[in-house]
């Protein structure tokens, strides 16, 4: 009996051992499975924690952009209509008008403006140019006309802007302001260009002053007054007969003597009422008791000290006149010396 137990016991042990081995094998297999799954999972976890790839988001972003672009409708600015100007736009137009005015002020400033520069050049050429004067004076005449045209253009720009501003202020609806501005300027400019030379320059004070400056130098000795300005401008189709012209602008005899002292005007002042000029010192004395009638013969204007303004342009003309007188006297003196040398004793 005991030997049978000893025989059977090992068999149970072997079965248990086999079972134990199987269990250990299953456990080991399970562990291997877990390890394998953990091994597979680790790269995925590290991929999540690691820096994301640039290529994948780029493709996704590009795809999103393409989708967005496909969703956006095509925009054509030509389909947008102009919106009416609000009333506050009149303030901006007022600023633009002021800017044009500043440019015009530069063109017409009191001292050393382009017009005066051309006049001074014409005076110098007339005085010293001799035989070469005429072609140069012709060129300067063209420059003067171009300056007058430029001044007119500035006035046209401001006139159209002022008209638009006035319409906005009365609540008129304007939704194509640029087109209307361009159209208005074009219409006025075309009308101006259709004028003849006499119509453009025949009554222009700047052009008259230019011609008068030349004339006064050329006729300084005979004191002849300049004829009507139309005399210097060729007649064109569309000009009326000279006899039918309204009021022709002409020159006056240039006199630099002060009416009160009968000497050359010094420190000139000009009355804004009647445009007569005087020496400042003589008029200060004349008006010491208060406003008086202009001392020029035939002038009925009442003049006060407040009406007198400095006249730098007249002062320039007087200096030029005195320079010519000095040169002329020197030439006469040289001629007398030559005559004396020719006398045979």
Automatic annotation (TrEMBL):
<dbReference type="InterPro" id="IPR004181">
    <property type="entry name" value="Znf_MIZ"/>
</dbReference>
<keyword id="KW-0862">Zinc</keyword>
<feature type="compositionally biased region" description="Basic residues">
    <location>
        <begin position="46"/>
        <end position="58"/>
    </location>
</feature>
<feature type="domain" description="SP-RING-type">
    <location>
        <begin position="245"/>
        <end position="300"/>
    </location>
</feature>
<dbReference type="GO" id="GO:0008270">
    <property type="term" value="F:zinc ion binding"/>
</dbReference>
<comment type="pathway">
    <text>Protein modification; protein sumoylation.</text>
</comment>
<dbReference type="GO" id="GO:0000724">
    <property type="term" value="P:double-strand break repair via homologous recombination"/>
</dbReference>
<keyword id="KW-0808">Transferase</keyword>
<keyword id="KW-0479">Metal-binding</keyword>
<feature type="compositionally biased region" description="Acidic residues">
    <location>
        <begin position="332"/>
        <end position="345"/>
    </location>
</feature>
<comment type="similarity">
    <text>Belongs to the NSE2 family.</text>
</comment>
<dbReference type="GO" id="GO:0016925">
    <property type="term" value="P:protein sumoylation"/>
</dbReference>
<dbReference type="Pfam" id="PF11789">
    <property type="entry name" value="zf-Nse"/>
</dbReference>
<dbReference type="GO" id="GO:0030915">
    <property type="term" value="C:Smc5-Smc6 complex"/>
</dbReference>
<protein>
    <recommendedName>
        <fullName>SP-RING-type domain-containing protein</fullName>
    </recommendedName>
</protein>
<keyword id="KW-0539">Nucleus</keyword>
<dbReference type="InterPro" id="IPR026846">
    <property type="entry name" value="Nse2(Mms21)"/>
</dbReference>
<feature type="region of interest" description="Disordered">
    <location>
        <begin position="1"/>
        <end position="83"/>
    </location>
</feature>
<dbReference type="GO" id="GO:0061665">
    <property type="term" value="F:SUMO ligase activity"/>
</dbReference>
<dbReference type="InterPro" id="IPR013083">
    <property type="entry name" value="Znf_RING/FYVE/PHD"/>
</dbReference>
<feature type="region of interest" description="Disordered">
    <location>
        <begin position="322"/>
        <end position="345"/>
    </location>
</feature>
<dbReference type="GO" id="GO:0005634">
    <property type="term" value="C:nucleus"/>
</dbReference>
<keyword id="KW-0863">Zinc-finger</keyword>
<feature type="compositionally biased region" description="Acidic residues">
    <location>
        <begin position="64"/>
        <end position="74"/>
    </location>
</feature>
<keyword id="KW-0833">Ubl conjugation pathway</keyword>
């Amino acid at each position: 009996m005991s030997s049978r137990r000893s025989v059977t016991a090992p068999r149970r042990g072997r079965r248990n051992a086999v079972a134990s081995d199987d269990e250990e094998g299953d456990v080991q297999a399970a562990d291997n499975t877990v390890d394998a799954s953990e091994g597979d999972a680790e790269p995925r976890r590290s991929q999540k924690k690691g820096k994301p790839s640039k290529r994948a988001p780029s493709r996704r972003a590009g795809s999103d952009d393409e989708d967005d672009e496909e969703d956006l409708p095509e925009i054509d600015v030509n389909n947008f209509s102009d919106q009416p100007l609000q009333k506050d736009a009149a303030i901006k137009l007022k600023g633009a008008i002021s800017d044009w005015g500043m440019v015009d002020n530069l063109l017409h400033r009191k001292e050393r403006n382009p017009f005066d520069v051309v006049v001074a050049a014409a005076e110098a050429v007339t005085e010293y140019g001799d035989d070469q004067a005429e072609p140069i004076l012709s060129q300067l005449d063209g420059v003067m006309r171009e300056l007058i045209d430029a001044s007119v253009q500035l006035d046209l720009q401001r006139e159209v802007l002022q008209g638009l501003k006035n319409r906005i202020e009365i609540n008129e609806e304007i939704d194509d302001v640029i087109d209307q501005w361009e159209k208005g300027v074009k219409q006025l400019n075309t009308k101006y260009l259709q004028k003849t030379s006499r119509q453009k320059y025949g009554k222009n004070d700047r052009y008259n002053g230019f011609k008068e400056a030349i004339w006064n130098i050329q006729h300084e000795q005979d004191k002849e007054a300049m004829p009507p300005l139309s005399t210097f401008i060729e007649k064109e189709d569309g000009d009326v007969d000279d006899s039918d012209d309204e009021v022709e602008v002409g020159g006056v005899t240039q006199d630099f003597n002060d009416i009160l002292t009968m000497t050359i005007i010094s420190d000139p002042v000009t009355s804004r009422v009647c445009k007569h000029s005087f020496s400042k010192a003589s008029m200060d004395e004349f008006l010491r008791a208060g406003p008086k009638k202009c001392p020029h013969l035939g002038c009925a204007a009442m003049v006060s000290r407040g009406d007198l303004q400095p006249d730098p342009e007249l002062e320039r003309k007087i200096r030029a006149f005195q320079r010519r007188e000095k040169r002329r006297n020197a030439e006469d003196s040289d001629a007398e010396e030559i005559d004396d040398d020719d006398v045979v004793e």
